[in-house]
Amino acid sequence: MRKIFFIIVLSFLAIVSEFVLFNFFGSWLKPNFAIILIAFFNLAWGIRYGIIAALVCGVLKDSLSASFFGLNVFSFIVSVYLVTFIRRYFYYLGTRSSRARIIFMVCVVNVLVQYIIHVALSTADFWPMVKSILLPEVVATMLVCSYLLKYLKNWAVQFHS
Predict the structure, then answer these.
(1) Per-residue pLDDT tens for 31-68?
(2) d(CA 7, CA 49)
(3) What angle separates helix 96-121 from helix 33-45, to the nearest 10 degrees?
(4) Pick from 100, 62, 56, 58: nearest CA to 76
(5) pTM given for the model
(6) What stretches of the chain adopt beta strand conformation (E)?
């Protein structure tokens, strides 16, 4: 129960931080803290806690979004299963580059899943999405992922003991 409370609090802080950064800097500095959290909880505590983090982050992000409700929940759950697949077959335990590659792949797939759903339910152009959503989000997320993963690991160790 303590882990779930920890996930809820960090998810809320992550979504609020994304919202504040987007309002101050626009779409060019918008790291996806939720993807980092979801990948971290999945790698650290397993798929169950990754799914809980995906549900909490997805509902919080969908409630602040003007897009289709459930879009973020679905794309975050896909991200959890992608992290599990990558962890099983391609992850090298304890290496920063391996964690950064996971965050990169999950961030790209998350944006592409959201794009595919947007195309299926309405209209969306590919190249403007790449220029205004995919590139800024991936670059900003990759800039903060190593730093944030290090502190999340320290907080989880302190919280768990």
Answers:
(1) 999 999 999 999 889 999 999 999 999 999 999 888 88
(2) 8
(3) 120
(4) 58
(5) 0.90
(6) none
